[in-house]
Amino acid sequence: MARYGAIEAGGTKFLVAVGEDPLRLEQVTRIETSQDPAETMAAVIDYFRRAGPLAALGVATFGPVDFATGRITTTPKLSWRNYPLREVLERELGVRVGFDTDVNGAALAEARCGAGRGVEDLVYFTVGTGIGGGAITGGRLVHGLMHSEMGHLLVRRAPEELAEFSGVCPYHGDCLEGMASGPAIEARWGHRAEALDAHHPAWRLEADYLAQACVNVACVLSPRVVVLGGGVMEQAHLLEMIR
Asked: How are the residues of the chain apportioned to helix, strand and coil, as percentages rounded to the nearest 5?
């Protein structure tokens, strides 16, 4: 049976794996994301060469990315800017490479294997250090002029919002990411999300902003399922508050 390779390329780490099926991954390995792309990629390429022949390789990467060229573009990680990730993998490993954003990869995984299994219209949000989103419509990932930037959706300030808090997004201030990401919670309250108990007023604000995001994408894309993931969503009480 054919074996496939998988890469989740993140700003902190690369997770690499091989397998015959998405639910039966083997040899899952963490490789640190170095400031020197050549160092990281040497370790990634060595891993797959040792893993044996592959039918194809799938990559879900941090961005922004250019789908046409397979490059990481204007990332804050300066040494990775304009890095030809897909080209390097195809050249060094001699396999076809599927290339997309990390959140689109997560959306696809939820649709095929997770909370949206069997659904052809789905939106996935990750809520953590940043906020990002990916969409599937008619069973296909949504691409266009650029990849989705759902973290920068504009939201209304919640009625309970602190008057002095203007958001943490360096581009827009009080967009969704600026108001509801993990760093926004910490900047507003002086503590990380996991340190706040379930009755803290932070969660009413968080639920308000994330609910607005869900309504916005529902009005535009009409998904049957919206999946919320990421570190902030590990708070067990938050999902019901958003609903």
From this structure: 35, 25, 40
End-to-end CA distance of the chain: 43
pTM of this structure: 0.90
Q: Are 97 and 103 in contact (CB under 8 A)?
A: no
CA nearest neighbour of 155 among 185, 184, 177: 177
Burial of 22 (0-12, 13-18, 19+ CB in 10 A): middle
Cβ–Cβ < 8 Å for 147, 104: yes
pLDDT tens profile 138-169: 999 999 888 889 999 999 999 999 999 999 99
What tokens does 20 get? 């015959």
Neighbours of 194 (CB within 10 A): 11
Strands (DSSP E) found in 129-222 = 131-137, 140-141
Q: Which CATH number fits domain 105-242: 1.25.40.10, 2.70.50.60, 3.30.420.40, 1.20.58.760?
A: 3.30.420.40
